[in-house]
Amino acid sequence: MVDNNKNDGFLKKLRKGLSNTRKGLVESFDDLMLGEKIIDDDLFEELEEVLITADVGPAFTYDLIEEMKAAVERKELDNPDVLRTVLKDNMMDILKDSEAPLRIPRNKLFTIMVVGVNGTGKTTTIGKIAHRFKKGGLSVMLAAADTFRAAAIEQLEIWSQRVDVPLIKQKMGADPSAVVYDAIHAAKSRGTEVVIIDTAGRLHTKVNLMDELKKTKRIMERELPGSPHEVLIVLDATTGQNAISQVKMFNEEIGVTGIALTKLDGTAKGGIIIRIAKELNIPIRYIGIGEGINDLKRFKSEEFVNALF
Fold first, then answer.
1. Residue 101, Cβ neighbours under 10 Å: how many?
2. Which residues pair with 287 in a beta bridge?
3. Crossing angle of helices 272-280/242-254, nearest 10°?
4. Whole-angstrom distance, CA of residue 226 vs CA of residue 220
5. By the 8 A CB rule, do 83 and 43 touch?
6. What confidence tier does 76 reach under pLDDT thresholds 50, 70, 90?
7. How many CB atoms lie under 10 A from the CB of residue 279?
8. Measured between alpha carbons, how far is 295 from 285 in angstroms, rounded to an integer?
9. How far is CA 115 from CA 6, 190, 211, in A?
10. Is the bond leading into 225 cis (omega within 30 degrees of zero)?
11. pTM of the full predicted structure?
12. C-alpha 72: how far from its chain's center?
């Protein structure tokens, strides 16, 4: 059963969290359309500038403006208000294609390898996902496979205590693959349903990091065929277009199956979600709009677009 009060609270928070993006995208769009506007090439040029500045990406911008121009030729856009509806509907269509919740089967081990560069909120996101799963009745275990930073192990330990789930760890400098090996065997013996693995996130251009992640993935596959069942990349919305290059890099090297987009509440660059959906064709699983333990939610396109507009 859905708790409507909780959902209303989240929607209010989402609307508030998207306020900077709304100013940069929707309100800039509305300002452009103020008064009796002639819908001509000059207007489309200004509109293009608004969209590109809002980080929605060149592909979405081009397709949207071409569609609007075609509608003008068909005499379907006789006033600027209709342009707003076309913008909203296009966003909804694109984001709908990226809406795919993570399905966890019951009574069998499901593994999630979480990747991303440092500073995206990766460890915090893991803690919040563990909390969500536990609330949903799943047994969860965390694995601290970012052994390069003592702080990463400590932070994950704090989250494991906070959400009351077991943590598998070794000392700093240990082989990440050994941690993953231990975690899979511990989960099997305890009948755990979900193992969430934190991985190192040094600069995504570092070859040795990618080699380490590939090795970790190989060990998972060896010890539990079909694993990892999900490779989830955590992206920081405030980085805007850098987020795209991060996904491409990790996807080429190890294959990414899902995205968690954090810090949407602290940025005017939330339009990047449109570009991610349009250009990457990878499901957006979660969005983060705050520091609280319940501020990571399953991505729902309709909620997002309605909150933005």
1. 12
2. 261, 297
3. 30
4. 8
5. no
6. confident
7. 16
8. 14
9. 29, 25, 13
10. no
11. 0.91
12. 35
